[in-house]
Design a protein that fits this description.
By secondary structure, this protein is mainly α. It folds into two domains: 102 residues, no CATH class; 83 residues, no CATH class. Helices cover 62% and strands 0% of the residues. It is built from ten helices and no strands. Helix 3 packs antiparallel against helix 4.
Length: 213
Amino acid sequence: MRRLLAESGEWDEDAWGTPISAASLGYAIACFSARTLAHSTALGARYGPGQREGYCAVWRYAGHLMGIPEAVLYATEEEARHMFRIGILCEPEPSDESAIMANALIGSAPMVAGISDATERRDLANRLIYPISRALVGSDLADRLRFPACTHARAQRMLFLHRLDTRLKRGFPRLFSGGKSTMEQLFEVSWYDAAGLAYSLPDHVDAEQSSHW
């Protein structure tokens, strides 16, 4: 992607530096590690110290493979949280593209749960996912990302009910189907054993102009 951006003619390297900077990548893995643990805990998940350390270590190793220098590569969960706090201070205002991406991700979330019907997906997103997301990221950022209007009280209520549901299922496993641990559920969405992994890459920075990959 760095090469495609650099060759696109749309990237001002003198003004913006190398595309996808190491600092941005360091901030990203801080979000995917410590921030994910914080949000999933708010949703009712529980992790042991070893699980938290191991999860952050996986993302640290991913950052190492992407070439993030040690200066901006966290070593512990606490360092990742600190890096996130610094990064959020440097973040620009959400752009139109940011809002489109955030809403697209929420709209696609029900598909991860196996819900393919468009009406059902929209209902779940509006009834549950948007209010909970607003409670997690805060009303100010939610408004800037153009999430549907929702009162603070309703957002917090939906988050509380979801957390309660998660804890009841964990506390009374015989009454509920599943039985998987939080860590198993967290990783399961990234398993591609059935579909397999391909290492093809895009050949154009614009997805609509890229060959199928």
